[in-house]
Design a protein that fits this description.
Blueprint lengths: L55 H8 L3 H13 L10
């Protein structure tokens, strides 16, 4: 048998229901103006591509391994209209 008793939530005396609050406060969030010094700011650094490929272990970690992963990959290829049994790439 499980114990369904839970500690009560703490009461925050400063919280209350506002009677004057509108039923719906729908509005649109819009983008504000750009900073005044945007043109003078330096672009953030972007790392250059390393040119190195992933190792087999990294690929397996990303895609999964085993028969289940291979079967799922084949099913996805078929769903996308690609014949996984063809030798064309």
């Amino acid at each position: 048998m499980t114990d369904d008793r839970r500690d009560p939530l703490p009461v925050v005396p400063s919280l209350s229901v506002r009677e004057d609050a509108p039923e719906s406060q729908e509005g649109r969030a819009e983008q504000g103006p750009a900073p005044a010094d945007l043109a003078e700011r330096a672009a953030p650094p972007v790392p250059a591509p390393s040119g190195e490929g992933l190792s087999a272990a990294e690929v397996a970690r990303l895609t999964g391994a085993g028969e289940d992963a291979a079967a799922a990959d084949r099913d996805l290829n078929r769903a996308e209209g690609v014949d996984p049994d063809s030798s064309e790439s």
